Amino acid sequence: MTSPSPPDYNGPLSVQGIRLGSAGAGIKRNDRDDVLLVEMAPGSTCAAVFTRNAFCAAPVTVAREHLSTQPRWLLVNSGNANAGTGSRGLADARETCRLVAERTGGLPRQVLPFSTGVIGEYLPVDKIASALPAALDALTESGWERAARTIMTTDTRPKIAGCLLMLDGQAVHVVGIAKGAGMIQPNMATMLAYIGTDARVDQATLQNLLADAADRSFNCVTVDGDTSTNDACVLMASGHSQAPAIAADSPHYPAFAQAVQSVCDALAEAIVRDGEGATKLIRIQVQQARSEAEARQVAKTVAHSPLVKTAFFASDPNWGRILAAVGRSGCDDLDIDRVAIWLDDVCIVEQGGRAGTYTEEAGQAVMAQDDITVRISLGRGTAQQTVLTCDFSYDYVRINAEYRT
Questions:
Q1: Which of 116, 211, 334, 400 is the most buried (most CB within 10 A)?
Q2: What is the pTM of this model?
Q3: What structural domains and CATH numbers belong to the chain?
Q4: pLDDT by residue (tens digit) across 358-386?
């Protein structure tokens, strides 16, 4: 058994047994693909996690209903979220599933629908129907890169990651795509992610693995603190690899789980790097917390702070903003004298105040970087957690102010 390759994988972007086809329906624009059809080979297994937003979109509701019926197809559209559309939205989502089933010979319940784009507008079912023949004709196992572009909304670039590992001398591929740049604070179990593998994995194992991987990756990133109505992540396993079948208690499970995790991690980081208007990637590492939950709570409080994020955009080492965010994060009985904070290797806070060795010049040098790590030690336990975020720039306001124009 070998370890998976790192996230900068340059292998083939294809998974045997999973085909993807893209087409243009003109949902919002006429100059790009905006409908994606994914076909899984018979016998494939499929797992998914979804947004916890109470106002979840119609396709999320329908996809949850259909997940237990051995899905064979995914239908994704960009340009329209089909969210906040009431009973008509549900009917429209179900109709698109019926249209796919009609053309493929499957059952509507074997189709999982997904939508991303503007909230509160009805889904143009007729446009999607007209694009389905072209999407079916375009189905190919090497369609991942085109698919990554098809699902983009305010993204500036496609997000793709892959991993290859060998199990008993047999290759197993894991390839994933994602979209998301704004309204990003996934809380799963307007981010979408689709990951495929040719491994043989039973559905229960696949579901547990995905839930854990998403919790450690997509649920540890935030651009703006907003959880979308449409967030979803799907993991498909075609079973076409000649490698041994993978179960939760199999000796190959840890390596396979790490391969999936590395793809999720790479996609999650790509989302933050492409955050709307973002100029910097910021890692908030919280250490010596009482629990992982506490560490994540502190990290997200800092990551969500508009004052912290705008200071990073300005390259201003305003350490007081970070300290204030830690102080309001909700830690019970926090001993501020034990708190220490670093910008990369520059200690800026110790014993609850400015570090004696800190200089503004040293802090400024770190803040001028494009990739910054904020390390926070709470001095009250052994747990740790890392959250990825980005800065707030003028362009974030512009992009979201002009989103519907």
A1: 116
A2: 0.89
A3: 18-273 (3.60.70.12), 281-401 (3.10.20.340)
A4: 999 999 999 999 999 999 999 999 999 99
